[in-house]
Amino acid sequence: MKKLVVWMLCATVVLCGGAFGATLSGTVVGVADGDTVTVLDDERVQHRVRLLGIDAPEKAQDFGNRSKQSLSGLVFGRKVVVVYAKEDQYGRVLGKVIVDGVDANLEQVRGGLAWHYKQFEREQSPKDRELYAAAEHEARSKPIGLWGLKNPTPPWEYRHKGGSRGGDVYQGGRTLELWGR
Prior knowledge:
alpha+beta, two-stranded antiparallel sheet, 31% helix
């Protein structure tokens, strides 16, 4: 098991080009939305992780719930390595989530379920900036995911206009997805 963890850490450093200073490994025990997860480390400490370089639709936006479902399918209940350099103002680790050698952040963009968050791209390695920008361009050109909408609203604009972060309504013992697609 220790050999596997060491191998995963080494692979992560190679994938990230050494752009980050620390790693966190553990199991994903929660997915809040399409760009935020909770990782439980080996000491049983929970860490909120905001996926660096992407911004997914809020739950109340079109594709908000699909984005969350996609990220859940990629990482929930699985061992991950998070490569990061800092925390945000909310105390969340800002990092790249790697699961079985796959960059989950990039997969969200490739699937048309998140924007490449260009406002904060300087916090990414040059290689990641290029990969994420190319992935968004390809998703837009196909168009897949949220890019199939006529005029998708970026989450940062939605939040700026005071949009809600909730998207599910509970009625009669059922969850109704009112806005997500």
